[in-house]
From TrEMBL:
One of its GO terms (biological process) is mismatch repair. It comes from the Eukaryota. Residues 4-70 form the DNA mismatch repair protein MutS clamp domain. The lineage of its organism: Eukaryota, Metazoa, Spiralia, Lophotrochozoa, Mollusca. Pfam families: MutS_IV. GO terms for cellular component: MutSalpha complex. InterPro entries: DNA_mismatch_repair_MutS_clamp, DNA_mismatch_repair_MutS_sf, MutS. The gene is 106078530. One of its GO terms (molecular function) is ATP binding. This is DNA mismatch repair protein MutS clamp domain-containing protein.
Amino acid sequence: VARDLNLEANKTVKLENSNQLGYYFRVTRKEEKALRNNKKYHTIDTKSNGVRFHNSATKIYNNEYQQIRDAYNDQQKTLVVEIINIAAGYAEPMSLLSDILAQLDVLVSFAVVSASAPIPYIRPTLHPKVC
């Protein structure tokens, strides 16, 4: 495109992207006269930072890219929903495992305390309550 317009690539002619338009070319307003009478290029709009335009090939590739991007996003959403459903299936077993590990932690702590006590641990004897 830059050669066709006799302009410098990446300096006066830039390839840009926006969510609404997709990919398009932009030239400065000063360089707009190279674009003015050229039937190969279609002006999208003119703003203070330059003139946005595209040609037929850019439009075709841009439409193809947007369709592929939309299909990719749809596939990604489906995959995210599937992953969330799988992860949700593990919530109850993980909660149960958490409770079991908490009980095991308490029992191991009691065992460590009784094994490392300076005085040997003796099982207490319980007597009936006297009133």
